Amino acid sequence: MFAAENGLKGDPRLEAISQAIRVVPHFPKQGIMFQDITTLLLDHKAFKHTVDIFVDRYRDMNISVVAGIEARGFMFGPSIALGIGAKFVPLRKPHKLPGEVISEKYVLEYGTDCLELHVGAVQPGERVIVIDDLIATGGTLKAAISLLERVEAEVVECACVIGVPDVKGQCRLIGKPLYVLVEPREVDECF
Description:
Residues 45-165 form the Phosphoribosyltransferase domain. The protein is 28% helix and 32% strand. It has 191 residues and is of the alpha/beta class.
C-alpha cells in the first residue's frame, strides 16, 4: 500500500520526499528514468521525513530486525533500526560478506542475481521488515523474503521509498504486505 492511501494523504512530508528525489533520464540505459535517492540524502529534512515515517509505522510492531537490501536499502535501514530499537542486517550481493552465508538467487529482466545473508545474523522467530529504495517488479524483495524465511524469520512487511504505479494493485509480495512512500517522478525540472 502507498502511504498516501494509509493515513498520510496530503501529508506535506510525502511531497518533500518526492521532490527531493532527482530523476535522471536515460540512465543507466536509454528509456530508463532513474530515481536518484542520493539527492534525497543531501536534503536533511526530506531524509529525516523518510526515516520518521518508517519509524512511526514500525515503532510498535515488535520488529527485532531491519534487513536492508544492497546497496540503497543500507541508506535507510540503519536509521530505521536505531529509531525502533532493532538490529540492522545487510542482505548483500555475492562475495561481499565474510564468513558463512546462505544465498538466494533471483531472476532479473536480463539474467540473474543473488542475495546473501550471514548465517546466525537472524534467529528463528525474529520479526523482520525488509527495506529497499525502490520496487519495480518485486524480484529482489521476493528473494529477500525467501532468504529470511529459510532461517525461519517472520517477515512482517517490505518497505520501499519509491514504488512504480504498477505495484499499487499488488500490495503483497508472496503473501507479505508492501508499504511504499511515493511514486516515481517522470521528469526532473533541472533537465
